[in-house]
Design goal:
Helices cover 33% and strands 25% of the residues. By secondary structure, the chain is α/β, with parallel strands linked by helices. It has a single domain (4-181), classed as Maf protein, CATH 3.90.950. A six-stranded mixed beta sheet has the order 2-1-3-4-5-6, sandwiched between helices. β1 (4-9), α1 (13-22) and β2 form a beta-alpha-beta unit. α1 packs across α4 (162-168) and α1 packs across α5 (170-181). The longest helix is centred in the middle third of the chain and has 17 residues, at 82-98.
Length: 190
């Protein structure tokens, strides 16, 4: 049986590696396309818009992933502005924003699969807390991982291996739903 090929639209190598660990029975091809990102707080609108752009360019099945971190203190923020916020204020600014605030947070991944006939949305959430101490392990693809400690863990996400993260992460939850949608046999069993 021929393995289904899907283009994972991202420039983020770390996202792609995690997706490949999870979707082992789908031939994922990383493709960096320059897509316009809508300026909105609606994460679902962002992925749908980008999936449409990507599909129009490739005319092949595509996956677009948008992941944001949300601070419980600020409801739907930073969300779609996760990267922009960090670029603007860095760790010190995030700490100032959350000083004396509820430090509960969660990562939310929304994935849009589009193949010309079908458009489907899948999401996953991973709850945790923002800690004050910055981990010495830093990945520029995932800045917040150095200060986010997931529920049921006692260390920042940046110190959790990709293999371990791929069992519990927000992206794993969304991709497992996608795998089930694409045929049920594509999700790696954990």
């Amino acid at each position: 049986m021929k393995m289904k090929q899907v283009y994972f639209i991202t420039e983020n190598e770390s996202k792609f590696k995690e997706a490949r660990l999870i979707l082992q029975n789908i031939k994922l091809v990383m493709k960096d396309l320059k897509l316009e990102e809508p300026k909105t707080l609606d994460q679902e609108q962002v992925v749908k818009n980008k999936a449409e752009q990507a599909f129009q360019k490739l005319k092949k099945p595509v996956i677009v992933d948008d992941t944001g971190i949300y601070f419980s203190e600020y409801k739907i923020f930073p969300g779609t502005y996760t990267k922009t916020l960090f670029q603007a204020i860095g760790f010190k600014g995030v700490e100032k924003l959350l000083d004396k605030a509820n430090r509960d947070a969660y990562f939310k991944t929304i994935i849009c699969y589009k193949d010309g006939k079908t458009e489907e949305i899948f999401f996953g959430i991973w709850k945790g807390k923002i800690v004050k101490e910055i981990s010495k392990k830093f990945n520029p693809d995932w800045e917040y991982n150095s200060i986010f400690v997931p529920q049921n863990f006692n260390k920042p996400l940046s110190e959790i291996s990709l293999q371990e993260r791929a069992k519990f992460s927000h992206r794993k939850k969304a991709l497992a739903k996608l795998a089930k949608f694409l045929g049920g046999k594509n999700a790696k069993k954990y």
